[in-house]
User: Fold this.
Amino acid sequence: MIPAGLIQFEASLWLWIFAAIRPGAAFLVAPLFGAPSVPLQLRLVVALAIGMPALAAGNVALPPDGLMSLTGVLAIAAEATAGLAIGLATQIGFAAAIAAGETISNAMGLGFAAMADPMSGAPNPAIGQFLSMVALFIFLGAGGHLALAAIIADSYAALPAGKAWLGHDAVGSLVDFGGVILAAGIVIAMPVAFALVLVQIGMGVLTRSAPALNLFAVGMPAASLAGIILLAMALPAMAGSIELAVTDGLDMARRLAGG
Assistant:
């Protein structure tokens, strides 16, 4: 015979797991928390730390037929979908820095200089990696990680556990937001990229005037040096634009959490 205390503990354990699904799904794709270098155990602890207050507030309850029933599977899918949408909206805010970095890297001729992104594990151009780190520092400096945790916790009020299905308007706004952020990344990179194009045109004219000049020996170092100087000059303005993109990502996540 199973002791009554053990039965109650098992029921509480299932409830804790259900409460941690939404935060865990958000942290799976969110910046910083979703990095491969972050241990899975740490994500689980943080997810439980966010899900438990919602459980204590009475906003989380297991489906009547249990998690292994059709109702339970649908409830798990709804929780995972809501969490993924909130985390993805925050992550999309970082895409502006990555897109700007890739554009500048290609204009500098450093598109081949890729390194592993610690947040995604995928190869990323060097300038894109630099701007991605700038976005991460801005995110942490502005308390974005705390804001994300608050957004997930507040989402239980508007999106009850197990019934957190997002509407067509919410999904459509998330897709439109991705396009806006991608365009913002191109706009952020435009001043530096356009100046580098002018440098490339100047090197082309110079090579045409002096055919003996080795374009690869002179043009690529000149473009790289010009890109570094221009990037240093434009970085304060670019950081402000990146901050707006990261803030917009959090605002989008907040709108999704509000239903």
Remarks:
- The mean pLDDT is 80.
- DSSP finds eight helices and two strands in the chain.
- The longest strand covers residues 114-116.
